[in-house]
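Encoded backbone
================
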Amino acid sequence: MRAFELVEPTTIEEAVSLLDGDDTSVRAIAGGTALMLMMKARLFQPTRLVSLRRLGGTMRGIRWDENGGLRIGALTSLAEVEYSPLVANAFPVISSTLRRLSNVRVRNVATVGGHLAHGDPHMDLPPVLMTLGARIRTINPRDQQWIEIGDLFTGYYQTALARNELIAELDVPAQPAGAHSRYEKFTARSADDWPTVGVAVWYRLESDTIAEARVAISAVTERPIRASSAEAVLTNSSPTPQVFSKAADAAAEEIQPLADIRGSASYKREMVRVHVRRALERALHLRSHEAR
């Protein structure tokens, strides 16, 4: 590993100024769980790392916003989110998803911002956050902006973030009455391994009719995507096993799976079919059980 410069700014504005929009060898580092592995494998050799460990303020912690949603600082660890009573009460799907995200050692170090900025299509939280309507606030040398999670991922390990732009916080809006959500993770190895297929579903019922639906799929494609055909099947339909099965078929036919060591394209397509249906059914059962 060649020598590099390590700087430790104390404000996010200073951190952004130390990044370089044109130099790919200059990176920010938070938990470092992914970046350090890349460095050890010599896939990435930095000339400068901008450590974010001294940053505070809204970059850390979990708090309510003025509209009843949650704001989560980008430097909040995944373990903090997992064990947060605020998150468990407002968004139990996030808490349950994190329990199977890698292992506790990684979750104790990895941060929310790093998890999203890395752009790995196998990450567990992005499809969940997409269905919840979440967004991130970013800061760059000129200004700040809000980016919907669905617009953040642009390709394989690629995001809409500029090289001199940092995620400051995550905003998860309050959910309406009648909302059901679920994340299904299927792995070919251990339970905490990278998913072969990740499926997140969200739908809102009005008088036993699905008024709105969101289905997001990850791991099988180059980036997390919404399955619009499945959402169309669900909308204005009753939450029945037949409708859920039809939506799962639509999702499986819509995606273009990538073959890798975790399975062939045809195998992954079938797993999408199975787990979209399963997620839709379990979301309804879970909410009905909680209402008793």
Q: What stands out?
A: Residues 265-291 form the longest helix (27 residues). Residues 288-292 have pLDDT under 50 and may be disordered.
